[in-house]
């Protein structure tokens, strides 16, 4: 019956994803905190994200804040990555229909990784961060910190 539990879990997760895309919840206080944490030249680009994208970024940001067993330097890095990782979505700008379709079909979304990395290079972000943004959807990352990040990003 393991397969049935897994199937039910997947269906529930997809339903949850639909809800997050169609009815995103943004905590205004957390949003201000995130904007404050981000370098000033990122802010206009973060504000350009769709509500559902901002809500996702904030869920990842909040989860990294309380992630267990993380050195402080690594936590600071991952908090920056949480804010920056999907910043390219403000450039690629997919419609709400695309976002809903992406919940159902295996559509590639790597365009925002490249767009984000290019944008961050233009904004003079640090190299390690640009590299992580570029690779944040890569299947088997060699960097353990990026792997750690993916575990949070993939479930939120
Ligand atoms: Fe992403
Ligand atoms: Fe993400």
Descriptive labels:
156 residues; mainly alpha; globular; 10 helices; binds fe (ii) ion; 71% helix
Main β sheet profile: none
Number of helices: 10
The amount of helix comes to over 70%
**Bound compounds, please?**
fe (ii) ion
Shape: globular
Number of structurally distinct domains: 1
Number of strands: 0
Q: β content, as a range?
A: under 5%
Order of helices and strands: HHHHHHHHHH
Question: How far is the N terminus from the C terminus?
Answer: 26 Å
Give the integer mean of the pLDDT values: 91
Descriptive overview:
By secondary structure, the protein is mostly helical. It has one domain. Helix content is 71%, strand content 0%. It has helices at residues 2-22, 28-37, 43-47, 51-66, 72-84, 89-92, 96-104, 111-122, 127-134, 144-155. Helix 8 (111-122) packs antiparallel against helix 9 (127-134). The mean pLDDT is 91. The structure holds fe (ii) ion (FE2) (2 copies). Residues 85-86, 112, 136-137 line the site of one fe (ii) ion (FE2).
